[in-house]
Structure formats: structure tokens, C-alpha cells
Amino acid sequence: MSTMIRRYAGMAVGLAVLAGVGMAEQSIKLPSVDDILERNVQALGGEKAMRKLKNREARGEIELATFGAEFSVIMRQAAPNKEMMELTIEGLGTIRDVFTGRKGWTETPDGTVTEKKERELANKKIDADFHAYLNFKKNYPTIKLQGVEQFAGKKVYAIKMTPRKGDTDTFYFDAVTGLVAGVSSTAEMQGQEVKTRVLFRDYKAVDGVQIPHTLKLEEPASAAFTIRLESVKHNIKDTGKWFKKAK
Prior knowledge:
Elements: H1 2-8, H2 23-26, H3 33-44, H4 47-51, E1 55-64, E2 69-78, E3 82-89, E4 93-99, E5 104-107, E6 113-115, H5 118-127, H6 136-139, E7 142-151, E8 154-162, E9 169-174, E10 180-189, E11 192-206, E12 209-219, E13 225-234
Antiparallel strand pairs: 1-2, 1-13, 2-3, 3-4, 4-5, 5-6, 7-8, 8-9, 9-10, 10-11, 11-12, 12-13
């Protein structure tokens, strides 16, 4: 789900290395990338519990900072790599963003359908991976530990991940809990490159797997939002209409 959120806003964000990290902290022996990724899987609930889940429906509210208003939001995912997000604005209608595993589009209340282009599709093929946190090495051939940083008030291990095709992402793994505290990257918005940054907070166990229930896009500020999940369900049987065009 975390990867899903960052791309829907055209997200993911760059955080500079914290200036003035003390020599004592720098001298600490860092864990290996493998150790950090394995600890993340265990913190999430373990591979066995994660693979039992085949799809997910999350419902909640999204607060759009620019408008100062909240709207209903639904996010759905299904293995291996399908996802969609549905935002309902009272008095206007529903906006749907869909990725089927190969194709993707955005539908607006006036009936307009905008197909996703090559760059976004390349990113979606990675980010929509339902078991993304089990497949880091598969999706990102080049993975490098950047070091210890401060991210949103947390001490984290920053790991830069580069796919064969698509944008490079930096994941921030909480040094205390092992969970992903956020992701930074770049995105194309209105023809311009922008830095993006999303935070993951308020993890709660659902069906044996830890799910962040608060997701906050901080950058770019013009597109900032916060999603607060109210319910999360897994292995729903009737998913036939999830990833089809509404009209």
C-alpha cells in the first residue's frame, strides 16, 4: 500500500543527508542491506503472513491541504500488481486512478479518461507489486545503503533503490522498529521534475501484517495531503469491477 500512495500523487521525495552527524554516530558499524530488508519483513509480520494476503481494500478520509477539506477515499490492491484509488468529492463526483498490471488511466467525473504514459507505467509496474516489500531485489537491481539519516524526526537507514526502468526511490527504514518510515523520489508533474516525499505512520496489525494507517505526502507542498485509514480488509472475493473502466 505504501508504494501505491506515493505514486498516486506523483510522489516520493528527496531528503538531504542530515548535516553535522556526530563522529561517534558515523563510526557505528552499519547493518547490511540484506539485514535491513530482512528485519523489515519480520517487522511487518513475516513472509508467511504476508503471502497469505491476495488483495486489500482500505477505506478512509483524505485531507487535501490546498483545499482545507476532507473527502472519502478507497484504495484497492490485488496480487500480483494491480491497484486503484477512488476519491469522491461531494457535489463533484468520483475520480478513479487505475492500474491493471499493464495499462493505467485516470477517470474524472465529467467522463474524461486519461491514459498513463510510458514513464508512469514503468513506475507503476514496480510500485503496484502487492508483495513489494518481499521483492525489493527483483524490482530494483541496484540497491545501495546511503547511511544513517534523520527523517521526520526518526533515525533511519536510507537505502537508494534503482530499477531497470523508471525513477530511483530512496526508502527510509526506521532504525528502531525496522518499518519503512517513508519514501523519497522525483516525479513528473505538469511537465516538470519535482521532489516528492511521503511519510508512513500509525502502523497497525491487520490479519497479522502491519499496515500504515496514516500516510502523508509532504512534498511537493502544492499537492500535499494526508490519508487516514478507517478500515482495512484482505482477501475479498468479489473484485471483478475493481480494475475496470467505470464507463
